[in-house]
């Protein structure tokens, strides 16, 4: 995938392996191995592997990132909080992509997008440090124009639109969230940003997001791990990629 993907071309799938590590950590065993999951996901059609090294290391550990980095055939998208510890670690690993995400120790999962506007200086410093190592930086934000303006002003080339509220709602509220994401994707592309999306996407809510031509990549994890329990890991990845491609090609027909 080139960094400058034309709008409306085939959509990428980033498979997030966090919750393979959650299952491993549940008993402190060596299995299921997130590294093996990542390599098999690549063979099954993943365009990149996403993993979130949280400050509390509740799932992915430092050793997972270190072990996986030299083995990936596609590319690593490392998610990290805007802290000096995490930025320094990411600069040592030098993945293709780093996605800066908000973190709260008390959260069960990511609850919203990074507030780039409020934390402009800290985000800008982190982006500069990462870019100095040749890392492409993505900011995980809500579909909000002010957040996208701040992202473009800082010079981060990629955004990942938070789809959690879309995933967690239904009916008119979800329809409104979908429209917000559509408008956000259009605006992001108009600002020259690569627009990705993710969080809470699964096998029946992904279609509406994959149909948005301006979105270049979806990062999906929890639902793929859950579906893998019933169909197997590689099939779960293949099925998600097939749904995304069929939706995107259908939407373009
Ligand atoms: C940033 C994001 O939306 C996901 O990577 C999510 O953070 C997965 O990690 P958790 O399930 O630990 O929140
Ligand atoms: N950034 C979203 C991601 O990597 C996966 O989120 P989820 O599918 O586990 O909710």
Automatic annotation (TrEMBL):
**Active site residues per record:** 52, 79, 199
Q: What does the entry list as the binding residues for 1-deoxy-D-xylulose 5-phosphate?
A: 18-19, 54, 59, 109
Keyword Plastid listed:
no
Return the InterPro entries for the record: Aldolase_TIM, PyrdxlP_synth_PdxJ, Pyridoxine-5'_phos_synth
What this protein catalyses is: 3-amino-2-oxopropyl phosphate + 1-deoxy-D-xylulose 5-phosphate = pyridoxine 5'-phosphate + phosphate + 2 H2O + H(+)
Q: Where is this site: Transition state stabilizer?
A: 160
Family, similarity comment:
Belongs to the PNP synthase family.
Q: In which domain of life is the source organism classified? A: Bacteria
Q: Where does 3-amino-2-oxopropyl phosphate bind?
A: 16, 27, 200, 221-222
Recorded hits in SUPFAM superfamilies, A to Z, give: Pyridoxine 5'-phosphate synthase
Q: Which EC numbers characterise this protein's activity in its record?
A: 2.6.99.2
Q: Where in the cell is it found?
A: Cytoplasm
Protein name as catalogued = Pyridoxine 5'-phosphate synthase
Per UniProt, what is the name of the gene that codes for the protein in this document? pdxJ
Entry keywords, A to Z: Cytoplasm, Pyridoxine biosynthesis, Transferase
- EC supergroup of this enzyme: transferase
């Amino acid at each position: 995938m080139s960094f400058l993907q034309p709008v409306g071309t085939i959509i990428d799938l980033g498979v997030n392996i966090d919750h393979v590590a959650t299952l491993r950590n549940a008993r402190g065993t060596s299995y299921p191995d997130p590294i093996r999951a990542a390599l098999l996901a690549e063979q099954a059609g993943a365009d990149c592997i996403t993993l979130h090294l949280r400050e509390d290391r509740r799932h992915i550990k430092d050793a997972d990132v270190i072990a996986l980095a030299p083995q990936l055939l596609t590319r690593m998208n490392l998610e990290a909080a805007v802290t000096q510890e995490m930025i320094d670690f990411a600069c040592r690993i030098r993945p293709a992509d780093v996605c800066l995400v908000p973190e709260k120790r008390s959260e069960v999962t990511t609850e919203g997008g990074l507030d780039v506007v409020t934390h402009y200086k800290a985000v800008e410093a982190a982006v500069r440090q990462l870019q100095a190592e040749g890392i492409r930086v993505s900011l995980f934000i809500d579909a909000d124009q002010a957040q996208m303006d701040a992202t473009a002003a800082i010079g981060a080339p990629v955004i990942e639109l938070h789809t959690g509220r879309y995933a967690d709602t239904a009916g008119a509220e979800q329809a409104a969230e979908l429209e917000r994401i559509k408008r956000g994707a259009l605006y992001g592309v108009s600002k020259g940003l690569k627009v990705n999306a993710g969080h809470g996407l699964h096998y029946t809510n992904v279609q509406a997001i994959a149909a948005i031509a301006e979105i270049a990549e979806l990062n999906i994890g929890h639902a793929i791990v859950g579906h893998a329990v019933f169909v197997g890991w590689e099939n779960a990845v293949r099925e998600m990629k097939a749904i995304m491609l069929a939706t995107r090609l259908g939407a373009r027909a």
